[in-house]
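We now fix the convention by which a protein and its fold are recorded. These numbers are not coordinates but entries in a learned vocabulary of local backbone shapes. A record is reproduced here so that you can trace the correspondence yourselves:
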Amino acid sequence: MNINVNYEDPSFQQDLYEQVIEQVIEKVCQEAALVYGLGPNAEISILLCHNDYIHKLNKQYRNIDRPTDVLSFALNEGEEDGYDGPDTALLGDIIISLEKVREQAEEYGHSFERELAYLTIHGMLHILGYDHMVPEDKAEMRKEEEFILQRMGYVRKGEEL
């Protein structure tokens, strides 16, 4: 799987966390590729940004006037099956607010890396056709998120593998 990480703000690339950030994203995306059978030609783009930037996108595309933590834009959105198989090259885009990652990690009492991993797999699952609009779908998506996170050792504080 090809993973393209980009930065809305070039100063993020000078952040001490840059290497950690990209390692976490790479690890999560590669694990998703393995578990969900994404072929080597599958490609995902991830943009890391500020709250202001994701706020504008959230308002524009979802008509929600506040920043969010992650947005996903599947290139095959609306198609019945979602992912088209291992020959599909471009899957879509995931936008993650690094400010929200930091805020939520503190709020939920776990590491920056765990929150980033969670938001990355959450975005990936949306790209692959999962959603959480109704309770049954939300439960299924949460089960998939936790499955991937536990496989990689990103457990919540107090949880055991």
Strands lie at 2-7, 43-49, 70-74, 90-97. The chain has one domain: 2-151. The longest strand covers residues 90-97.
